[in-house]
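Check my protein:
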Amino acid sequence: MKKGLLRKAAALLLSLLLAAAALGSCTNKQEPAETQKSVQESSETASEKQEAPETAETAADAESSSETAPEEEPKFHKLHVEGINLVNEKNEPVQLKGISTHGIAWFPEYINEECFHQLHTEWGCDIIRLAMYTQENMGYTTKNGDPEKMKELIDKGVNLCTEEGMYVLIDWHILSDGNPNMHKDEAIAFFDEMSKKYADHDNVLYEICNEPNNCQWDVIKAYAEEVIPVIRKNDPDSVVIVGTPSWSKLVQAPTYNPLEFENVMYTLHFYAETHKQSLRNDAIDAMSKGIPIFVTEYGISDSSGKGIANTGEGDLWTEFLDENHISSCCWNLSNKDETCALIKPDCTKTSGFTDDDLSDSGRWLKKYLQK
């Protein structure tokens, strides 16, 4: 009988254990997939409803910010000539102030990144003139000249100016070859190549004959009428600067028979110890008759590049330039032993100039450019 009771108790205990196990299995059972999906979608919808107002508000803020943000200033203005002024896209007068190299075949070392950066950021220079002699020793058209090397230097100079945010003037620097037609064919080929290469550079200007001499304006004009169309074919809107008779002093000469091209300016050169109020009067007369002037070269020495540094007369000239929005490049970036050189002859640096490294002309020019 005891054995029977024990069997009944064991069976009852087993039943209880199985019931407990079944109950636990039901409690841990996952919800159906459809139920889970419904809960997840409901949660996402609620989240989207909360985020929606913030997203719309952010978009509105972005649109408002876009509308009120000032227009970004272009790195270079597309310059052109309007009346007697060099102007930007809004026809506002632009006055460029900068420095001319000496002959790049003679002083190539100053065409370097550190030098151009210092002239731009510390001095306030915004244009560099790359002077390439044509007939002087080692000039572009001479037997001992190296045209390819000079074009490499020009390319280096243009690229450095572009990176630095400066304008650049490519100068066909005639001097002893006073009549520009003497090397007209070489000039045409040169400017054809340059204007093709830099057609997309808004910061490149062209000076097609530095200082014509011992020839009249009609001779210079005939030369310009052949060279300018070559540039215009490749770079239709570029600014071209044309020299005037007597080493670019007779700026009134074109008033009687000006060139019939747009975006053309005429060269005036002065050296303050030699050229004074009478030449400024000539410039005033030329401008009154519609001649736009660009001073592509000047100094405060005498016209030979030597003599004293006449800072007082130089100040009168720069006041005149500023009053009339006339752009200019000061001669010259070198340590040549002459008054008009900006660097002292005993300074061998090619960048990192201190005031002690500068000549009287250099210190005077730095002060003017920093105004």
Observations:
- The first strand starts at residue 80 and ends at 82.
